[in-house]
Design goal:
Blueprint (H helix, E strand, L loop, with lengths): L2 H9 L11 H11 L5 H26 L11 H10 L14 H23 L6 H19 L6 H10 L9 H36 L5 H12 L3 H14 L6
Helix pairs in contact: 1-5, 2-5, 2-6, 3-4, 3-5, 4-5, 4-8, 5-6, 6-9, 8-9, 8-10, 9-10
């Protein structure tokens, strides 16, 4: 995961994002949500996210007994959701508490930065399927961040309570973790349903039409189901294997 993409999303002048649909508003929301997090901390969290995704991927392989499952099977936002639902948390050194919504804000910024980098490099108004998929994933990650609670660290909660002359209640760190896990699980269930619908539609489109290669089919169908071409490609290969079909 290229940290340069993260920097682009958080530092590129907003006027330079006018050519990206909803790019200005999304970048503004992300910068506001990540206010107070330093660039170095953001990069460290991005690395933690990458590790969480790899852990979720390995857990999926272990659960299914299929070592051929690849990261392209799902989008990063889906792997992250799975990691949080399974309570797979990685914390960068020196950051003892990271609310779940921050992980999604960082991921959203990373995805948006990829779109920004592509626009800067190619200087074109054309949006390829990969850029559309990345932008939609950034928007989805931001939406998940909005749904999750921005819980105060327990130490801050207690300090605030004492400053107000109140006795801190018993709602401690374990309660917060359980609440966040429950909400992440609910969102993961919703994500699985969305993924099933997208997969079903993608396979319907594939078997109803003729394409020169599987890669060509995946590239064509990806933008229609709002998934990355690699994800659609894996769905097609799995469906072909299930039907006893080989090759392209």
């Amino acid at each position: 995961m290229n940290s340069q993409h993260l920097r682009l999303a958080l530092t590129t002048p907003l006027e330079d994002l006018l050519g990206i649909p909803q790019g200005v508003q999304l970048a503004h929301n992300l910068r506001e949500g990540l206010d107070g997090i330093t660039p170095d901390q953001a990069v460290a969290i991005l690395r933690a996210i990458n590790g969480m995704i790899e852990s979720a991927l390995q857990a999926e392989r272990n659960a299914s007994g299929d070592e051929l499952i690849t990261r392209d099977e799902n989008r990063d936002v889906e792997w992250l959701m799975q990691a949080l639902a399974d309570e797979i948390h990685l914390l960068p050194a020196g950051q003892p508490h990271i609310p779940n919504h921050i992980y999604f804000l960082i991921l959203a910024a990373f995805k948006l930065g990829g779109v920004v980098e592509q626009r800067i490099s190619h200087k074109t108004t054309h949006f390829p399927a990969s850029a559309v998929a990345a932008l939609l994933e950034a928007q989805e990650a931001w939406a998940y961040a909005e749904l999750l609670p921005s819980a105060q660290p327990v130490t801050e909660t207690i300090e605030t309570a004492w400053n107000r002359g109140l006795t801190p209640d018993s709602f401690g760190s374990e309660d917060i973790k359980k609440l966040q896990s429950k909400q992440a699980k609910k969102a993961a269930d919703s994500r699985h349903q969305s993924n099933r619908i997208a997969k079903q539609r993608a396979l319907e489109l594939y078997f109803a039409t003729t394409h020169s290669t599987i890669d060509a089919a995946a590239a064509s169908i990806a933008s229609q189901v709002f998934r990355a071409p690699g994800t659609v490609r894996n769905w097609i290969f799995a469906a072909r294997r299930a039907r006893g079909m080989n090759g392209e």
